[in-house]
Design a protein that fits this description.
Blueprint (H helix, E strand, L loop, with lengths): L6 E4 L6 H12 L2 E4 H7 L3 E5 L4 E4 L1 H14 L2 E4 L13 E6 L2 H10 L4 H12 L2 H9 L5 E5 L3 H25 L2
Parallel strand pairs: 1-5, 1-6, 2-5, 6-7
Antiparallel strand pairs: 3-4
Helix pairs in contact: 1-7, 4-5
Bound molecules: adenosine-5'-diphosphate and magnesium ion.
């Protein structure tokens, strides 16, 4: 049994997953698993897609790569998809949401080209990731949080810290 929870932080590119994950990792000691980085560095892909301007992820290889670490517990999984992670691995799913005009500016600043930018904006407006999370996990563990301002980040991270603490208290209660 895990003694530290696993948290998935997901949402459309640019919503603030990596910002939140980094802060939460440093305040809780949980481990930040940047799936972007793992895909790239450990070669969990079948090459680069020019059309999508991203790696074509080999999901089986990715899951094999992170399985031992995640099963051990205490991971913050940072990625713009969530339905591939087995339910048994995941204790909390945080879906970050951002106002579309704010997201537009962030993605523009990141250098996204018009088509990719529009695709991601549509995805945020249609709340694709929220639906994906709700379809893939029990509703009690899926939480939607705003990420428009830096105050939002602070508040969200504090809230997640408290959640981690109470999760651990509950687990230590079970274990006597
Ligand atoms: N809540 C927020 N308030 C202000 N700036 C934010 C917020 N969330 C993210 N940002 C900024 O937006 C950009 C993208 O954030 P990032 O954490 O890299 O998003 P993601 O990992 O979801 O793609 C960064 O420049 C970050 O500083
Ligand atoms: Mg990121």
């Amino acid at each position: 049994m895990r003694t530290n929870p696993n948290i998935v932080i997901t949402g459309t590119p640019g919503v603030g997953k990596t910002s939140h994950s980094t802060l939460l990792a440093s305040s809780t000691g949980l481990k930040h698993l940047s799936i972007n980085q793992i895909v790239k560095e450990r070669g969990c892909h079948e090459g680069w897609s020019d059309e999508y301007q991203s790696w074509i992820v080999d999901e089986d290889k990715l899951l094999d790569e992170i399985e031992d670490e995640v099963k051990h517990g205490g991971c913050i999984i940072d990625w713009h998809a969530c339905d591939l992670f087995p339910k048994s691995w995941v204790d909390l799913v945080v879906v970050l949401r951002t106002d579309s005009t704010i997201l537009y500016d962030r993605l523009l600043e990141r250098g996204y080209k018009e088509e990719k930018l529009q695709e991601n904006l549509d995805s945020e407006i249609m709340q694709v990731l929220l639906e994906e999370a709700r379809e893939s996990y029990d509703e009690e563990i899926v939480v939607e949080l705003r990420s428009d301002t830096t105050e939002d980040i602070e508040g969200n991270v504090e809230r997640m810290e408290r959640w981690v603490e109470s999760w651990k208290e509950e687990i230590s209660g079970y274990n006597g």
